[in-house]
Specification:
Trna Endonuclease, Chain: A, domain 1, 2 helices, 39% strand, globular
């Protein structure tokens, strides 16, 4: 397992814990749809929320939310659409969010930023 993978997995665990603390119900983590992946699928009230998680070290020159580019958004949209078709979900009852986590490994701290409705 590479450092990037372990950092990403830690970020997903922290994001799930954060979301549960905000009242979300986690439905799935790392949902694979062919070659596409949705990091976290959660329920918030009547909404199904698809969450992309981006994690970076505090030493990184790039903030985690800056890692979400147009191609990644396009892939996430396709994965969300496919999931909605498979699960027979009304896309009007869904939302896509970004949880950005900046880890300070030295101090064992995580800064979490939650961006709702990213598309």
């Amino acid at each position: 397992m590479s450092l990037g993978n372990s950092l990403g997995q830690l970020g997903e665990k922290l994001a799930a814990r954060y979301l549960v603390g905000k009242g979300y119900k986690i439905l799935e983590i790392n949902k694979m749809l062919g070659h596409k992946e949705i990091d976290i699928i959660a329920q918030q009230g009547d909404l199904t929320v698809f969450i992309e998680v981006k994690t970076a070290s505090s030493l990184s020159p790039v903030r985690p939310e800056e890692q979400l580019n147009a191609l990644k958004i396009h892939r996430l949209k396709k994965a969300v659409w496919q999931y909605c078709l498979e699960q027979r979900l009304n896309p009007n009852n869904t939302r896509a969010d970004l949880v950005a986590i900046c880890l300070n490994e030295e101090e064992k701290l995580a800064k979490v930023r939650h961006f709702e409705n990213i598309f």
